[in-house]
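Thread: "does anyone have the structure for this chain?"

Original post by V.I.:
We have the sequence but no experimental structure in hand. Need at least a predicted one for the grant figures.
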Amino acid sequence: RTSAESDRGSGDFDHVALYPQGVFVCSSAAMFPSSFAVAAVAAPFGRDVHATIDEVGRLIDDLRPRGVRLLVLPECALGGYVTEPGIDDDFAPEVGPTLDPYGAEIERLADLAGDVVVVAGFTERGADGTRYSSAICVSGAGVHGLHRKVHLPPTERFIFTAGDRFAAFDTPLGRIGMLLCYDKCFPEAARTLAHDGAEVLVCPAAWPADRLHPAPDLEQDRQMVTYDALDVARAAENQVVFVSANLAGRQGALRYLGKARVVGPHGLVLAQTTSAGGVAVADVARADIAETRSVISHLADLRPATYHAGLGEAGAGVAS
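Reply from O.Q.:
Generated one for you, tokens below.
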């Protein structure tokens, strides 16, 4: 079964639209479910964290009967993304509220999640006033994983501090790895997570239309072409399930692409929304990953000794 709920009006997603389900952490693959439904959300999210969590809780209740066990929300879903000023605007970028990854808000989200695994983006409050664009993975069992965005685009470099690692982690559904938005432009990031045993990669994003030459039709926008290609490429090259959530609608000077989707380990899109937003839902099976890799395994066939020695150096290969 696959489905996409992409034709709902914006009133259905004032803050959120999601579905998850998780279980309890175990490291034995034999205890992971063989199949489960995944949901990815494309919607606008506001500054009211408590209202958003309430809405997410209602979404979880709606999706749980459909067998959804993993719900992925966009970047900064809890508290909203940075509001960027336009060329003629006279205000500084506005940042949403900062949260403690082990604070009351995340604890409440975990309580509402119950047996669903939920991934949500938020602005993390770090030490000494630092801020991170982070993603957290929770279920009723607690916090399973935390990722701080490693690759910051130019507009974020004076707002957030960059993370410094990619690491997969166990959940009730199996081993998951997290990326955030611009992170997925770097194949090395997704490959690191796949090497670390992740069979599902999730990527909350706040991906806007092209800043220089936005297309009237988002489906024809240059950034949409890039966004679509990256989701499929990261799934196919690592032979993993790739779950992509994104902001939708307008906020400040930016118009977001929407387009949440689930991509299978073969690179086929299993479900996706339109740019208007919604919830994409698809069934995934761990056997599909094993079958795809049994024919030809990209991870097993890697030849690291042949690759560019300076690949890990910042700016390597960039013409001056």
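V.I.: this helps a lot. The two ends are 50 Å apart (CA to CA).
O.Q.: and Confidence is low (pLDDT under 50) at residues 1-30.
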